[in-house]
Design goal:
- It is a single chain.
- The protein is built from 28 helices and no strands.
- By secondary structure, it is an all-alpha fold.
- The protein has a domain of about 130 residues: Tetratricopeptide repeat domain (Serine Threonine Protein Phosphatase 5, Tetratricopeptide repeat, Alpha Horseshoe), CATH 1.25.40.10.
- α12 packs antiparallel against α13, α14 runs parallel beside α16 and α20 runs antiparallel to α21.
- The termini are far apart.
Length: about 500
Amino acid sequence: MSDISQKNQEEKNVIDLLFQQAIALHQAGQLGQAEQLYRRILQTYPNHTDANHNLGILALQAGNVAASLAHFKLAFDAFPNNPQYVLSYANALLNNGYLLDARKIIKAARQRGLDSAEFKSAQRLIDDAITASLQNPGPTQDEWEPVYQLFLSQKFAELEPKALKLSDKYGRSGKVWKMLAVAQQVQGKPFLPAKRRAAQLLTADIDLHFNLANDLHQHGQTDDAEALLRAAVANNPGNAQAHCILGLFLGNRSRVLEAAASFNKALALDPNHIQTLCAMALLMNNSGQTKDASAFLQRAIAVQNVPADTLFVLAMTLFNLGQFEPAAHQFNRVLEINPLHADAILNLGNVLMLLGLKDDAKKCFIRVLEIQPGAAVAHDNLGWLQLHEGESDNAIASFRRAIALVPGWGIPHGHLGAAYLVQNHFAEALETLQQAATLMPDSADVYCNLGIAHQGLGQAGQAGDYFKQALRRDPNLATAKIRLAELDKQSGQATQA
């Protein structure tokens, strides 16, 4: 055997051993460790069909139906006559709404001789779903795929008209209304009618109901919001997540005892429900019960074999509690399992910024943009670092990209205005900051910078007015105080002269 052949055989033996270990962990319910090993295998052998297939199963177990589809497809494409690959892929297509494709896969497999009772049952299930869809139709795969790709690339201005057109054609498709609501909300447009319709159609989507409830509360419709979540709990009484979501809503309304009661119901159903444990930690901390908060947090940290997305919730809780170094550790744990978890990389960058590790933070934001070029927050955060490193031209380019992606988001407008001030481009700053003030009318920093822009243009009276407006929003804003005092001093000297 040649040295190359021997090396290849040794690598194969290592991969086989890793795969057997992953299966053992998977069967033992240690999902986080199993996922980590499967992904480690795919780093060396991206076309390892069994690893892809089992990652698809893990994704289903974590409730991520869309992710399961990609893994099952890779396994099926490699071995289309493997019965388990066929059934798993067809089931994923069915759960993603690709009914005709699912039927095509099963029908072709049966014609190739894969005609066991499981395949006959699968075809009956798909046929029943197609019959039901004719009564409550949704978009075809060809219609949905371009919309979904625009969503993934965060091109919401292009997405909205396409989703609106689909909503006219498929008025009883919950996922269409949900997508339309996302596109409208991100752009700062009226979105509640679309999101309400989505919630009516997607009664089992607990997170959607929670988001809608928060939106209704912000629009002064608190009673409707609470009724919506209580209905979701009534429809899903054995769902720990439903009780947790109601608790989060009540906690955000400062109804601590009722929130704790909902969280306790969730933990009675699932004592290791990490989102609820984290929510209880935040609730106790905000109530001044730091010892109890720490106990719940330690329970969450002690839960073993946690999938990446659930571990991300724990990392964000630590972040929100100001425990930045432990949060960074947990974000890195997420990335050990899934190196492409863009939200974990983004928030790791945020933590590193707060820890003063700006170079490492910058690398995180650049990595996010390699994975998701349409991540507006990453563009804005990268621009902020560039601005503070003296790279104002690069910063301006980054802020403009963020604004182009999400025109209705005020923060990058404010940052872009600040970048123009650094370059003494006062007219451009004024125009941009006026847009920022429209989008963020309560921001003292924006009004202060408007004052600086007017001051730079020699418009002392208007500058003073904006500094005063900034101080009404934040009486302790030092820059506004100093600038206003300077203007008053100059005004007094001019009067004396």
